[in-house]
Design a protein that fits this description.
The complex is a heterodimer. Chain A is α+β, with helices and mostly antiparallel strands. In chain A, 41% of the residues lie in helices and 18% in strands. In chain A, strands 2-1-3-11 form a 4-stranded antiparallel sheet, with no helix packed on it. A 4-stranded antiparallel sheet of chain A has the order 6-8-7-14. Chain A has a two-stranded antiparallel ribbon with strand order 4-5. Chain B has 21 helices and 3 strands. Classes of the chains: A alpha+beta, B mainly alpha.
Chain lengths: 329, 482
């Protein structure tokens, strides 16, 4: 919180500041390779006035053209498509699209900070969520070509494994649900005609494990100030009083104290909430444009940038453009 | 006598099945009486033999019986398993395989791969495998499923991405599978090797049986065969554009078309000619009302193309789709496409142009997508000759709207009881018609204070008397417009 108060970010960048950024600080060569490769197949879009990206269907055949454009226009915001097209200038002849997960700190369903916009706390929570999602992408789905981009108010996970890039929206929605834990896991199984009860936390692999992790994260981040729509105040109090058991993975005790029927209700509620961990629309949209890494998020005066090491990344150190420090002077 | 189940009995696209078809020779025999087939049917356990009509005597009749079985099982309350018991007798395997190919080829030639006929056939195949498995002992099931999967999956580890089409068609959900490092875990040894050390307080082998065991393997096997059936129909359809089809197959195609039309007339709630229903905008759900007013960029394309197009077409032409569970195509209700062209499309196009920025100014190709979502392929306008090139999309569920179009989801009181905008429309239409009737009744009673008898409604009002949330006739969307 301290840094936010000292450095006046979250204030929109002026045209002069944008010009300064694109002419003095921004370097086209720092565009991530995954953007530079086949850049001519992507559609670019720009917002010049801060009213939405209505300058669309642009293409750049070389880095030099993009460099000139950015220096000359100093746009309020710059975007490029997650899709590759044969005719990007018409948004036609779609080839493939990156698989995207957009974690916006201000939209996380359970935020301990309760701040109005974004702050260090919720950005930190977004980071935790991103790390968990990436673990699942790698460990369960076996995906490898994954990049993280700090968007200015959260993180974009960009997956470029060829095996997923041609997938349609329906399958992307399934991946999303698996990843965030928005499906209520089965608790009844049967074999040879006999039924057995097996809760998700007893299964240390596959989707039940993913759900267990997301459930634990959600419950441990609950604070008395948070309200859950379909959970009564009495049950919510019970959950808060017993959440300590989850710290030690004492799931049986937690479930017992909350009550098995209540536990079911809580599972349902959290699976619904989990859907809000990422912006689903971004993941299923094959033709979306996404903030261009290295460009300026002028609304909050922060740099959108690739994150090489999510554990160590501190947006308040690495994503603050120079002009913000000069503002203070 | 114990009969060993052959792979072909469950998978008509297996190598073994291909051999059976090759041995059969040409198609000239499909109408010839086949004593071996008759014998196999006659001696099937529990088979009705008193009625000669129940017994297929040649390949053609067997193929038709297959279709008939599925339609009756799905829709007919008086369906009798014994009339079709032969379909579950492994002795008919070789005849059944031929019947499968006759149907698949006839459908591929006569109909488009996304037509309701193709879909019904694929579903039939899934359903017949499920029932055939039910007839087997546990060890037989396990054995045959293992053999089929070995043939279908030719590498040790199957990646989840290998099932892309099945996942995309929602025949299977990703979370139903046990995944590890991109692999779908099916094999017991593999399961134990990967997870044994992680499992505490439980027997790992028992856990395998519960979590994966036979049900998941069978599910994957069935879905893969369904997918292969779909792919086969597509292949036949492509081939039929280049090669002159056999006249017998054209005849079978005609027969299938007739069976389905008759079935549609018989099993839908309409019990007569289908004409559609006049739209009642008052009963539209909030998401549709918002869409009709025009949508902002970002939600625009999905709102118009995916939500509004399917909602308006189904509510105007066939609002009972979810209840009847019968495949209907636009031309069943709107044979010359006049309703579609003069009523439905103008409403969609106007809403599209009310968007900000107007949808077609920005994305003129979305007109093609709208046609495609009505089931007429990617063309500028719907035309009968293109019907079935794509699916006639049903309106997306409320859950899906929350994901795709959260800005349009502004639930009201009625929304809490339903899961799809079309169900909202039917419920609300019924409520409104009840309100109107009560009002009319009140005014009638006021005008005729001595007559306490209720007003008798004419037969045309029949549909308005039932609650769509309850069973019974729920065609509550006003009278038809023709």
């Amino acid at each position: 919180m301290i840094l936010l108060e000292v450095i006046p970010i979250n204030e929109p960048a002026t045209l002069q500041e944008r010009r300064k950024y694109y002419r003095e600080e921004w370097d086209v060569k720092k565009l991530p390779d995954f953007i530079k490769d086949h850049m001519e197949k992507r559609e670019f879009g720009f917002d010049h006035l801060g009213k939405g990206p209505n300058d669309r269907y642009r293409i750049f055949r070389s880095l030099e053209y993009l460099k000139r454009f950015m220096r000359y226009k100093s746009p309020f915001a710059a975007y490029c498509s997650v899709a590759f097209y044969d005719k990007p200038f018409k948004r036609a002849d779609w080839i493939k699209s990156e698989l995207i997960f957009d974690v916006d700190a201000k939209d996380i369903p359970i935020r301990t900070c309760q701040c109005e916009n974004v702050c260090e706390i919720c950005l930190g929570e977004a980071k935790e969520i991103v790390s968990a999602l990436i673990d699942t992408l790698k460990e369960d789905l076996g995906l490898k070509d994954i990049y993280i981009v700090y968007s200015g108010r959260g993180y974009h996970i960009r997956v470029l494994d060829e095996t997923v890039m041609k997938m349609d929206s329906d399958i992307r929605a399934q991946i999303l649900k698996y990843l965030v834990g928005s499906e209520v896991p089965r608790s009844e199984y049967s074999t040879k005609g006999d039924k057995y009860q097996l809760e998700h936390f007893s299964i240390p692999f596959g989707y039940p494990k993913v759900f267990t992790q997301r459930f634990k994260y959600a419950v441990l981040h609950l604070t008395p100030e948070i309200k859950l729509e379909n959970i009564s105040p009495a049950l919510f109090k019970k959950v808060l009083n017993n959440k300590k058991y989850l710290l030690n993975n004492e799931w049986g005790l937690f479930r017992k104290n909350v009550g098995p029927i209540n536990y079911k209700k809580l599972v349902k509620e959290i699976s619904n909430l989990n859907m809000g961990l990422v912006d689903a629309k971004v993941s299923i949209d094959l033709k979306r444009i996404l903030r261009l890494p290295t460009s300026l998020h002028s609304k909050v005066s922060m740099k959108c940038m690739e994150v090489k090491n999510i554990e160590k990344f501190d947006p308040f150190k690495e994503a603050v453009p120079k002009f913000v420090y000069e503002r203070k002077d | 006598m114990i009969i060993m189940v052959s792979v072909a009995f469950l998978n008509p696209l297996s190598v073994e099945a291909e051999q059976i078809v090759r041995d059969m020779g040409d198609l000239s025999k499909i109408y010839e009486q086949n004593p071996d087939l008759i014998h196999a049917v006659d001696t099937s356990k529990s088979q009705t033999i008193s009625d000669n009509q129940s017994i297929p005597k040649n390949y053609y009749e067997l193929a038709i019986k297959r279709m008939e079985w599925y339609i009756k099982k799905k829709n007919d309350k008086n369906y009798n398993y014994k009339d079709y018991a032969f379909l579950f007798n492994p002795e008919i395997s070789k005849f059944d395989v031929v019947a499968f190919f006759i149907l698949a080829q006839a459908i591929g030639i006569k109909f488009n791969p996304n037509s309701r006929e193709s879909k019904l056939f694929v579903d039939l195949q899934g359903s017949i495998i499920e029932e055939r498995l039910e007839e087997l002992s546990i060890s037989e099931r396990r054995n045959i499923c293992g053999k089929i999967l070995d043939e279908l999956i030719q590498h040790d580890n199957i990646k989840w991405t290998f099932l892309e089409e099945i996942l995309s068609s929602k025949k299977l959900s990703l979370h139903e599978l046990i995944l590890d490092n991109g692999d779908i875990i099916l094999d017991k040894e593999d399961f134990l090797e990967r997870f044994r050390d992680k499992i505490t307080h439980r027997n790992p082998e028992r856990m395998y049986e519960l979590l994966i065991g036979d049900p998941v393997k069978e599910l994957i096997m069935i879905k893969m065969i369904m997918q292969k059936t779909e792919d086969y129909i597509k292949k036949v359809n492509e081939m039929s554009q280049k090669v002159e089809p056999h006249p017998y197959l054209l005849e079978v195609g005609e027969k299938i078309s007739k069976i389905l039309s008759d079935n549609l007339r018989y099993y839908t709630t309409y019990q007569g000619e289908m004409k559609g229903f006049r739209l009642n905008p008052e009963a539209f759900p909030p998401c549709i009302k918002l869409t009709l007013n025009g949508v902002q960029s970002g939600n625009r394309n999905d709102a118009i193309v995916l939500l509004l197009t399917s909602f308006l077409s189904y509510s105007r032409l066939y609002p009972s789709i979810f209840r009847d569970n019968v495949s209907v195509k636009v031309s069943d209700v709107d044979p010359d496409l006049k309703i579609t062209q003069n009523e439905i499309l103008p409403l969609i196009y106007e809403a599209a142009q009310r968007c900000n920025p107007p949808l077609f100014d920005d994305d003129p190709q979305e007109k093609l997508n709208i046609t495609a979502k009505l089931g007429f392929g990617v063309h500028e306008q719907p035309e009968l000759k293109n019907e079935g090139e794509s699916k006639w999309y049903t309106p997306m569920s409320c859950d899906k709207i929350k994901i795709h179009l959260p800005a349009l989801c502004k639930p009201d009181k009625t929304c809490k009881k339903i899961g799809n905008p079309l169900s909202y429309y039917k419920t609300k239409s019924w409520q409104l018609s009840q309100q109107r009737k009560n009002k009319e009744q009140k005014s009638y009673n006021n005008k005729n204070p001595n007559n306490n008898k209720s007003k008798t409604y004419k037969s045309g009002d029949r549909a308005e008397n039932s609650d769509p949330t309850k069973s019974g006739d729920d065609d509550s969307i006003g009278s038809d417009s023709h």
